[in-house]
Amino acid sequence: MGAGAQPYLGDRLGEIRIPTVVVAGAEDAKFTAIAETLAAGIHGATLAIFPNVGHTPHLEAPARWAEVVGDFINVGRPAS
Fold first, then answer.
1. Alpha-carbon gap, residue 10 to 74, rounded angstroms
2. How many CB atoms are closer than 10 A to CB 71?
3. Nearest partner of 49 among 37, 5, 12, 15, judged by Cα
4. Residues with Cβ within 8 Å of residue 41, at least 6 apart in sequence
5. Is-above-0.90 flag for pTM?
6. What angle do CA 29, 59, 8 make, to 5 degrees?
7. CB 65 within 8 A of CB 58
8. From CA 4, how far away is CA 58, in angstroms rounded?
9. Any idea where the domains of the chain sit in the sequence?
């Protein structure tokens, strides 16, 4: 079930109609680009790019991650 074995569904992002937050670390260029593509393709999605953070924002910046995700869950928009 690795990424290379899963079907491409990027062309269906526009079908997502629920509040969505996409989080990535700015130091991980590959996943920042993926996050930007996801957020652009999902109607109304919010993008949160964490500066000075790499591939694991939830581990590298847990307080910031909890704030962004918590705010999103509670009010539908993460803190800037």
1. 28
2. 17
3. 37
4. 10, 13, 14
5. no
6. 50
7. yes
8. 24
9. 18-75
